[in-house]
Amino acid sequence: MPARTTLLIIFLTLFTSALVVYSLMLNAQKTSQADSAKTVIPSITPAPKNVSLSFNPTAFTVASLSSTSGTTNVILNVPNNPVTSIQIELSYDPKVLMDVKLATPSSSLWQQTGANYQELYKNVDPVNGRISYIASIKQNGQMISGNGPILSISYKINRAALNGSTSIKILDKSLVMQNGTNKSVLGSTQDFAILSVLPTKPFVHFAPITQASSSGLPATTTIPK
Predict the structure, then answer these.
(1) CA distance 100 to 102
(2) What is the CATH number of the domain that holds 101?
(3) The whole model's pTM is what?
């Protein structure tokens, strides 16, 4: 057999073997991809929404002309599984409530539980009447549970703009998160009410004043007091 023919046969044999190996590799790769696609991703079971947000005190009554300012605390109630982060979104009437300020209560729930936390965002928008507060435990920090204040809100009241009542509302954008969940566990909220029991129009009182008339007899005149 000529040497050229022998070399051709060897080349074809090697080329065919390479094609077979390449085909086997492609088939193995497709099988691996199919197996990956069939991998079952465990689902996250939603935690019960048993966490609540409220205020203490729950209301403020404007009962006198000296009732011009007040303070309320946002209360977080976590009865069972501890939480890791919280986002509070509030709204109020900026025409009625002025000089709104935020502070951390001296005995906040963060401190009561010894949580190593950080306040990520704290802001008051006096034009649109919005309050935003975001806080979270630090990495590997103690999670929080129980019942207590987490945010203090002070304000001044514009009595001229208060027509009966107003409120600080907890918006639906508020969130409370726990480990192992991808949805908020906040289940209930209670707004803060400001009520006025003052008359909408002031009373005008009249007091009699006695003056001497031209005839020498006393004359009574009433002037507003």
Answers:
(1) 7
(2) 2.60.40.680
(3) 0.68
